[in-house]
Amino acid sequence: MEQPIRENLPLLEMDVLRTFVAIADTGNFTTAAEAVLRTPSAVSMQVKKLEDMLGVALFRRDARAVTLTHHGELLLSAARRLLALNNETVSRFIRPNMNGVVNMGAPDDIGDLVLPEVLRRFAESYPSVAVDVKIAGSDMLRRMVAEGKLDIALFNCNGDLAAGDGELLYREKLVWAGKKCGAAYTREPLPVSVWEQGCIWRSKALDALEKSGRPYRVSYLSAHHMGQRAAIRADIAVAPLARFLISDDMVELGEGHGLPDIGYYDVGLVMRAGAPAPVAAVADYVRSAVATLGKSADKAA
User: Fold this and answer.
1) CB 107 within 8 A of CB 138
2) Are residues 87 and 107 in the same domain?
3) Measured at the alpha carbon of residue 178, what is the angle toward residues 177 and 182, in degrees to the nearest 5?
4) Distance (Å, rounded) from C-alpha 224 to C-alpha 237?
5) SS3 state at 241
6) Spatial CA neighbour of 100 closest among 279, 269, 287
7) Same domain membership, residue 82 and residue 216
8) In which element (H, E) is residue 66 found?
């Protein structure tokens, strides 16, 4: 009896899938090429090879952006799973000591806007390391690291760090934010949204108002920058925010609006003594991400 002829299916290549995911995430061939360290022409050739192998179109291309087709959306989910499995398998052999749990802390501004992308990229490189994140005030986070309750933490400060208190990563401008076309800044006394004692943004903002002689009242209290943004968008208060948090529906207010300059604040990083290799790896990823944030802020300024 003759054996049935078995047709071997083609194998998906990890490098090609990585390029495909990069294009899907960025919506741009050129940006994806930079991410995977290839030329745009090489990326285009990889996509053509993948589309020819599967016999379907994966992207819709126009002058402004690249979007996934229905078949592209189906492949994207599978591609992420395959890449994650590949990374997890390989890491067990070439990084056997990179495993465990890293307990990390961050203030909510950095935690909400920076950490998600940092942790996603970190997980791709170190899939056997889990990172648990606590969002809290800077003073509490530094205290928890000192007590051994956290392995690593980002924090906001004035830059006045003593030896052993951590390292400064970058300096950010602190500004007054108000609703676009809003009127809260014209009211007397000035309605201000801040948080409780110990918040560096609060202390710098209220100190500046005291020195300027501008009457004010704390009209809105929130532990998170999203609460400050809600007060701004409702036009019931102005608030001190990091300049990078100013969105399109807000305006930066200054001396021309009767508000004093607040100055700058610093972002620092602290690790517990004797932290193992996975903690140091997280620190490296955070340093890189914050440095990128700092460069973006410099360009915006």
Assistant:
1) yes
2) no
3) 165
4) 15
5) strand
6) 279
7) no
8) strand 66-68
282-to-116, 149, 181, 268 alpha-carbon distances in Å: 13, 16, 42, 14
Picking from 38, 73, 94, the residue at the C-terminal end of a domain is 94
Task: Answer yes or no: is 146 within a domain.
Answer: yes
**What is the CATH number for 183?**
3.40.190.10
Give the pLDDT means over successive 10-residue stretches in the chain (301 positions). 69 92 90 90 94 94 86 92 83 78 91 83 86 91 94 88 78 94 96 86 94 95 83 95 91 95 93 90 86 58 52
Closest CA to 240 of 267, 256, 220: 220
Q: How many CB atoms lie within 10 A of CB 79?
A: 21
Residue 134 sits in the same domain as residue 283? yes
Global pTM reads 0.71
Q: Say if 5 falls within a structural domain.
A: no
Domain around 76: 14-94
